[in-house]
Design a protein that fits this description.
Blueprint lengths: L4 H14 L5 H4 L14 E3 L2 E3 L6 E2 L4 E3 L21 E5 L9 E4 L8 E3 L6 H6 L8 H4 E8 L8 H6 L8 E5 L1 H4 L17 H10 L4 E4 L10 H9 L5 E4 L9 E9 L7 E10 L4
Parallel strand pairs: 8-9, 9-10, 10-11
Antiparallel strand pairs: 1-2, 3-4, 4-13, 5-6, 7-11, 7-13, 8-12, 12-13
Family: Belongs to the Cyclase 1 superfamily.
Keywords: Extracellular matrix, Secreted, Signal
GO biological process, one term: L-tryptophan catabolic process to kynurenine
């Protein structure tokens, strides 16, 4: 006996109502995004699948200096971290053919990049977005330096670092790394960053085109917009913020930074790695 199509649909719907599918929130991401865990995400019989999460590769030759995105990361102006940014609307556990996530997060979150349109509205209107940034600046030899831990990055501090002419990319490790600010939920306005005079000194006295720093803003909170204005006015300097620079020796490396090509975006998450200069 052939059952009519409409009756099959009614039977299917009744089964769904009587035996509802578990919510996505209950079944998705069983190891909360895999953060700070080496436990199994899934078990198949006697074999446990244990993901390996690394930040150093090739016996210390390659360093991932990108912070892993998580709900507990600090976000600008928030006390409780970013919160949930990743959802699994289509889950194999709930009958989908494949797992398909969706995400929503600020463009200036975690390790990220600034485009000129971030603080200049006429640049924003003209289309100077992240898609216009120069990959030659974002990739190449870079100097990782330690700066004095007791002050913001002023002109005096910049002068004391004796950065040679010809250096185009500098990553500044500050007290932010020592305080592990990027690992704390609450946004901290006491982070170390550039004061306007420090930014101006760097622009006037060095050849630096890429400035990297270890918290959510390259500019100190008390000089937030003025310092950004100095750096981004020429559209020749690229700012990389929120870098993970702990446990890496100061010195010369090759840096590789790649951001998302988002049309119209004044900022973007970015993946950055350091490679030891003389590695073959």
């Amino acid at each position: 006996m052939k059952i009519p199509t409409y009756l099959l649909l009614l039977i299917t719907l009744s089964q769904i109502i009587l035996n509802p599918i578990p919510s996505v929130a209950d079944s998705a991401y069983p190891s909360p995004y895999g953060i700070e865990t080496t436990t199994s995400c899934q078990s198949t019989g006697a074999d446990d699948l244990i993901p390996v999460r690394r930040e150093v590769y090739g016996s210390g030759r390659i360093f991932d200096i990108t912070h892993r995105l998580s709900p507990d990361m600090p976000s600008w102006g928030l006390e409780d971290g970013l919160g949930q940014f990743l959802w699994l609307p289509n889950s194999m556990k709930n009958g989908s053919l494949a797992n398909n996530s969706e995400m929503k997060l600020p463009t200036h979150f975690g390790t990220h990049i600034d485009a000129p349109g971030h603080v200049y509205d006429h640049y924003f209107d003209a289309g100077f977005d992240v898609d216009t940034l120069d990959l030659q600046v974002l990739n190449g030899p870079a100097l990782l330096v330690d700066v004095p831990r007791d002050k913001n990055l002023t002109a005096d501090v910049m002068q004391s670092l004796h950065i040679p002419k010809g250096i185009k990319r500098v990553l500044f490790r500050t007290l932010n790394t020592d305080r592990r600010l990027m690992f704390k939920k609450a946004f901290d306005t006491s982070y170390v960053g550039f004061m306007k005079d420090g930014a101006q000194w760097l622009v006037d006295n060095t050849d630096i085109k890429l400035v990297g720093i270890d918290y959510l803003s390259v500019a100190a909170f008390d000089d937030l917009i003025p310092s950004h204005h100095v750096f981004l006015k020429s559209r020749e300097i690229i700012l990389v913020e929120g870098l993970k620079l702990d446990d890496i020796e100061a010195g010369i490396y090759t840096v590789h930074c790649l951001h998302l090509r988002m049309l119209g975006a004044e900022g973007s998450p970015i993946r950055c790695i350091l490679i030891k200069k003389h590695w073959r």
